[in-house]
Amino acid sequence: MIDRSASEMAASLADGSISAVELTKAHLARIEEVDSHVHAFLHVDNEGAIAQAEQVDKKRSAGEKLAPLAGIPLALKDVLVQKGIPTTCGSKMLEGWRPPYDSTVVSRLKSHGIVILGKTNMDEFAMGSSTENSAYGPTHNPWDLTRIPGGSGGGSSAALAAFEAPLAIGTDTGGSIRQPAAVTGTVGVKPTYGGVSRYGLIAFSSSLDQAGPCARTVLDAAYLHEAIAGHDPMDSTSINAPVPNVVAAAKNGDVKGMRIGVIKELQGDGYQPGVLKRFQESLELLASLGAEIVEVSCKHFDYALAAYYLIAPSECSSNLARFDAMRYGMRVGSGSAEEVMNATRQAGFGREVKRRIILGTYALSSGYYDAYYGSAQKVRTLISRDFASAFEKADVLVSPTAPTTAFKIGEKANDPIAMYLNDIATIPTNLAGIGGMSIPSGLADEDGLPTGFQVMAPAMKDDLMYKVGSALEAALLSRWGKPLLANAPKLGK
Questions:
Q1: Cα 52 to the center of its chain, rounded Å
Q2: In what order do the strands lie in the sheet with 167-171?
Q3: Which residue among 5, 7, 19, 77 is the active-site one?
């Protein structure tokens, strides 16, 4: 049962062949069996999950009309607050903290009867591309336990690939939903910025952070997207407009006549040959389904990485100033307020967080603001214009999701620039605030590890991503004869 899609599980729940409690217990047993090897979870809420499942079963037996995903288990990235459940954001700074309220995403999950299994591991305060920056140790890729599962949401993607949960929530600041999806052979979607509420999301970079669905199929991601999306008065950046009909688009999957734009700047040097080969094959498949493939140029994308690594640290240095040892979180040392704050931040923040705070503080400082942060924001405008121009020529844009397959744990730990380059294909969508999706495109010839195919759509046209993703997924499944994850090594007994 645990290796089925969420939609298939939902059908079994609806026809009574399995109960929500049985399904939840099966996933909790799987976590118990394999998570000592994978380390996808930071906290497993056994009692809470079973209690949530019991409520769903009770409502179903009483004949209540339930949401499509009611009773389906889910893994929650530890950056979203859940009332009474330890929330650390992968940092010692928040170790042991139990929030007094639910984030909007969690509230919506609960209102849909989705069963939250626990919190997943992540790079500290979502800063990283590998989950190696977690204060609680790295998560391991189920395809090869010596390799990274992507980041910052490696815990969520690994939980899916290890069949510990059929659904997960991630957040994407520079690619932290899509890049983990690519290297674990799963599906990850960054909705349009403002499409999903950020209320109760512990901020890294407020103008870039976006929560979104992670799943094993495009349709499952669409159902989860529909459950968590929509306007929220608690979030001033939330878009007050109808949620695009992503479920219908995922069920449609017809790309005949669609113009698919291949971004010239997001391929070539630095991209692994096996990644590019699978990407080209996917393009050919889409063409065979009746899509028109066009090449587009987005010349300012070459500056996206540099702009991002000025904007994101600048915003993080401001956001993380709230962790001052005064209000919540860790507190160490004694003496004056300044001494206690300095000691706490020294002990509580890890190396990558400190690096970005220092970089951001410098970029925002008097005399440097215009030269660094101001210039980066101008580049951001140019990137948005590149997208606008490209969408005049194409309905959606595509690229490889990540330039390489999963690298070995520790391989890039001492080379931050090499690590940052892993986000080169995903960052532009965050800067422009548009939607992006990654779906599995196969296994690279060099190492037999998953590769990802990225689809980008204009703001609030997320349904177009699901249409293309669904079409490609179905065509690849037909070619392979089985889901990609069926090729992953078997974990556990």
A1: 24
A2: 41-44, 115-120, 73-77, 167-171, 211-215, 187-190, 435-443, 450-457, 396-400, 259-263, 292-296
A3: 77
Interatomic CA distance for residues 441 and 220, integer angstroms: 17
Spell out the CATH class of 6-302+378-487: alpha beta
pLDDT at position 400: 97
152 is catalytic: yes
Average pLDDT for the chain: 96
Cβ-proximal residues to 42 (8 Å cutoff; 6+ apart), any chain: 78, 86, 88, 90, 118, 119, 120, 121, 136, 155
pTM of the model: 0.97
Burial of 160-181, coded b for 16+ CB within 10 Å and e otherwise, reads bbbbbbbbbbbbbbbbbbbbbb
Of 152, 197, 314, 470, which one is the catalytic site residue? Answer: 152
Identify the pLDDT of residue 343. 93
Interhelix angle 375-393/304-319, nearest 10 degrees: 130
Choose the catalytic residue: 91, 107, 157, 176: 176
Spans in the chain with pLDDT lower than 50: none
Residue type, 177: I
Q: Closest Cα partner for 170 from 453, 436, 484?
A: 436
Identity at 463, one-letter amino acid code: D
407-439 tens-digit pLDDT: 999 999 888 888 888 899 999 999 999 999 999
